Amino acid sequence: MDSERNRAILVEQFAALRKQIPLMYAMMFVDAAFLAFAAYGTVSPWWSLGMPTALALLSAVRAGFWVRRRGFSPRPELIPLYLRGTIIVAAVLSFGFGGWGLMLYAEGDLVRRACIALYIFIGAISCCYCLQPLPRAGQAVLLFGAAPVTICLIFSDEWFLRGLGFNILLVAIVVLRMMRTTHAGFVEVLASRSHMAAEQLRAQGAEQRAHQLAYHDPLTGLPNRRALAEALEQRMSPEGGAGALGLLIIDLDRFKSINDVHGHPAGDQLLRDVAARLSTAMAEEGTSYRLGGDEFAVIVDGDGEAARRAAHAVVNAMRKPFVGPELVHHIGASVGISLHPQDAPDRETLMRRADIALYKAKHSGRNQHCAFEPLLDAEIRRRAEIEREMRAAMVCDAFVPHYQPIVDLKHGGVVGYELLARWQRDGSEIGPELFIPIAEECGLIDALMLRLLHRACRETRDWAVPISINVSPTQLKDPWFSEKLLGVLVRERFPAQRLTIEITENALIVDAESAQQAIASLRNQGIQLALDDFGTGYSSLKHLEMLPFDRLKIDRSFVAAMERDPRAMRLVHAIITLAATLDLPVVAEGIESASTAQTLARLGCAMGQGYFYGHPMPVESVVAAMGSSAA
Predict the structure, then answer these.
(1) Which residue in 385, 589, 592, 620 is the catalytic one?
(2) Which of 40, 498, 589, 619 is the most exposed, fewest CB within 10 Å of its CB?
(3) How far from each other are the two terminal CA atoms of the chain, in whole angstroms?
(4) 370-411: per-residue pLDDT in tens?
C-alpha cells in the first residue's frame, strides 16, 4: 500500500513540475534581463551581457526539455531520475545566478547592491513557489542562489544593507517552512485522493459484483430471469422498437434422475455444460438465459420461422450425449415457443404462453418443441379450473370409491373387486381418466388415494373377497408412502392380506430403487402386488424379475382387439404363456362379451374384469348384488 502511495506521489510531483517549471524558467529569464539592464555600463560587457546570455541559454534548454514533456507520462520507475536531475540542475543554475549576482553586488554602490539583492531574492522566491512539489529543489535554489548575497548583506558595513540581509533571512526561513508545510499538505491531499480513488474503485467493483449477482446466474454465468424480464420489457416497448421476436422456454428432460442418482455436484456440472452448449448453439440465433433449476430461455429476433429454427437447434443440441470425466449423460430438452406480437402483447403474457407451449411439448412425448396455440391456453385454463374444483371437492368428500368385480373365468365367481375413483360433480359422475392426470401433476394424488382407501376399507371390511387399488408412480417415489398406506389399514382395522396394490411399469422406469423399497415394506406386511397394463409402454422381463408380483394384468387394448386382430390374439396368448411359465396368474381387463371371456379361459387366463361382468358400482349396488347372489 505504501509503495503504491509513493508511486502516486511521484507521478503527481512530475505532473505538477511539468506544468510549473517552464514558467519558472521564463521568470528567471525576465529577472536576469532586468538585472543585466540594471548593471549595464557599470561592469564589463562579459558580466552585463555574456554571463546573463549564457545563463538564459541554459534556462531555455531546460525549459524546452520540460515543455516537450507536457504530454509525456514516463514509467513510474523513471520519475525519480527526472526529479533527481531537476534538483541537480536547480543547484547548478542557482549557483550560476548566485555567483553572477555576487559579482555584480561587489561592483555596485549602496543602491545598486540593494537592488541586486532584491532582484536575486525575488527570483529565488519565485523559483521556490514553482518548485513547491519538489522542496529539495527549492531549498537548493535558496542555498546556492540567494544565500551568498544574503550573507554579504548581513556582514556589510552598512546598517541599511545589514537590515535588508536579516529581513531576507527571516523571509527565507518562512519560505522554507511554508514549502515544507505545503509539501506535507500536498502529500496528504494525494494520499486522501488515492484513498478516495481506491474506495471509489472498491465501490465500483462492489456495484459490478452486485449487478453480476442480480442479473446473472452464479452457477452457469448466463443472464437470469430478472435479466430476461428486463430484456423483454425493453425489446417489446415502443422505445425498443417493439419488433417481432420469439421466446423459447426450455426444460431439460430426465435431469432430475441425474441429480437423484449421481448427486448435486454432477447435476451442477451438467447444468454448466448445458449452458455452454446452449450459448454455442444460439450464438447467432439469440440470447440465452437460465431461469432456475433445469429451465432455460432464449430470446430470438425474427418471426415464427426463426423461432422454430432456433427451437429445433436446441432440441438437437441437447439430444447429443454430455461426456464428462467419469460419466456420460443422455438427456433431452422440451421447448415451448411464443411469439410477439402474434401471441402476446406484453412480457407476462408472452412468458406464460411459452410455458403453456412447453407443457404441451412435455406431454406430447418430450424431446421436441411446440408453438403456442390459442386452444392450449383454453386447455390450461380448463385444467386449472378442474384443479381448483378438485381441491374443494376433496374437502367436501365428493370423491367416492366404485368397485368393479374381478371374476374367475373358469367358475364364474367373483374373486375380488378393483377400487376405481369417481367424482360426483354438478350432478354428474366424472371418470378417473379426466382428473387423475391433473391430480398427479398438482400433487393431490397421494391425498386423494389415501382418502379413497380410508373409505373403501370401512365399506369393504366385512367382505369375503379382497380389493385392489391403483398406485401412481409418483406415490412410490415418496419414502413415507408405505408407512402412510399401512397406517390407513391399521386405523381402519383392515387386513393387509386382503389388499392388492396395482402398479404400472412406468413406476419401475421412473425410480426403480424407490419403488422396490416401498413395495418390499408393503409385501412384508402381507399386501399383494399386481403389475397393471402389461404389454403397453416399456414391457420387459426385467420388470417381472425386479419385484415379487402376485399377478399380471393384460391391458384392455389387447383384449378388446382379440376377436378382430390375430396379432392381438397372439400377443395375449404369448403374455398368458409367459405368465404361466413364471407361475403368475393373469387378469384380463376390458372383457365386454361372452366370446372374449371364453377365448381367454381357453387360452389359460385365470381371471377377468370388464363391462361383461359389471360396471364399476358404488358400495350400495355391490352389497345389493351380493345379497341377490346369495339368495
Answers:
(1) 589
(2) 40
(3) 104
(4) 998 888 777 778 878 888 888 888 888 888 999 999 999 988
